[in-house]
Amino acid sequence: MMTRPFFSSFVRLALVMVAWASLGEGARIWGQEASVEVTVNSTNVVRGDVLRVTVTFVNCKVREIDPPNIPGLEWRMGPSTSNSTQWVNGVTTSEQRYTYGYVVAGPKEIQIPSLVWQTNRGNLKSNPVRLLVSGNDPSSPSQGASKSQPRAVNRDLVTSIEPSKRSVYLGEPLVLSYKIYNRYNNLDVRNYDIPELEGFWKETVQGPEARWEPQLINGKRYNVATVRQIVAFPQQTGTMVLQGFTLNGYLRINFFEGREIQATCDPVEIEVLPLPENAPSNSLGTFADLTVEQRLSADSVRTNEAVTYEVTFRGSGNLKFLREPEVAWPSEFEVFDPEVEDQISITAKGEQGTRRFKFVAIPRAPGDYMLPSFSATSFDPLTGSHVTSSAPAIQLHVAREVGGAGESSGLTFTHQQDVQVLNQDVRHILTSASSFYPKSRPTWTTWAFGLAMGASPLLFGLMAWMRRKRQKEKRDVRGTRRKRALKSLKQTLAQSSPLTVETVGEAMEQYLMAITEMDRSLLTREAVRLRIAVTDQDLAKAWDDLWVACEMQRYGASAGDLESLANTLTDLAETTESVLT
Questions:
Q1: DSSP 71
Q2: pTM of the full predicted structure?
Q3: Number of domains, the chain
Q4: First to last CA, the chain
């Protein structure tokens, strides 16, 4: 009897405390100054760019707002919302943000006026924003030229060539880094074109696949990807111009809508300095810290025993340019062509390592031999002068072969390079059987003649058939485009691993654009259904159902199997081909 009233009193007390806390918090927030702020991600924009407009409600709330109608800006997506509350030194500040995506389509100057917003704190007016628009002015007479030239978009997508040096000597290695700076979260990189380096010998640095890495530049957060690194060696002097590379991408606004985007960078100039005029004639080229070593596999051998002689070059530079060294061999040695061993690493720091020449020599006469010292002269770009590295001389003792043929016969062998051709009229004797034909045999009786005569009509017929096929494809533009669209759809689905709903949607979109001959901007679900319904009502309904399934899968409203969805897309495309044919 006493428990229930006590419990009821306790519940009422708890509710009163919660209510007071809520009222206190609300009073603190209500007591703060309320405002509406409009901000953009950039005030200097280019016509056609995607501009992010953020409306922030400070210490006030709004239920739902429509995209603001701003002259010169076309709404494309949003809003995306976020909420935050801060409590600092007893002062509470709440913010409610709405972010929209607009496409810049106005003149050289766009004014976002002060707008009035209905909030729980009454009608509040936001601040005005002024935008400066550059490029692609439709009133400009050079509009056609500007469209044909690639450009960086709003500095949110930039390509860059970053050389390790701006001034190098002839043959000095130069590391070129090709990078992409991106601030978009929904960018698909389609392709990029890195032009050839004229006047350079290049080596590509092998590394992991390019990936986005965050980087803070001038207070802005970028995703940076290094798509390629090249070690280039200039082969001529003067000012070399590296043409900027172009990036083609697709900026996706939503699942079935987006636009092409392009960026390029300005050309980069590299000053290539000539080597000093007093360069020695035996200079090997431009190398940093080049050293040379020579060694023998043994210091004492017998006649007719092979010995290995190695010459090793070590340093930084284009070591692959080094050729076989000239060694002063004794005439009693038989020497074979050298084997070249490279241990060269190509990294972002340049090219460095070793190149080794291994000679196999066989002494044919006993005695003590001296292989003279070997020197290598090269230009060192670090010091700006020619330097010489020397390897000391090597002694080799050759003992007489015990019981060998050379001891009894007293034969003398000379170096193979000392052998001279005494008579150019001497020819080797043919030891194998010949296959000459008698003069009396007619040419048309040979099998080669018959094969050539029979293959000529077949080759002519094949070329005529291929020519007729190409002409037929040129006349039937729509049919050829449909066939290629089906083939492209199958290849896209087969090569995608893992399969994603974006891949399926993009493949479907490309195929529908081909069979309906509609541009991407006009391709909508209703337009596709009406276009196909002219030919087949059931086929139009099947495509409409597949479009709905893709949208449900995209926004998480359905947990269907992507593999089954891709198979349905392929079967429906094949059915469409049979109906349209």
A1: T
A2: 0.44
A3: 4
A4: 87
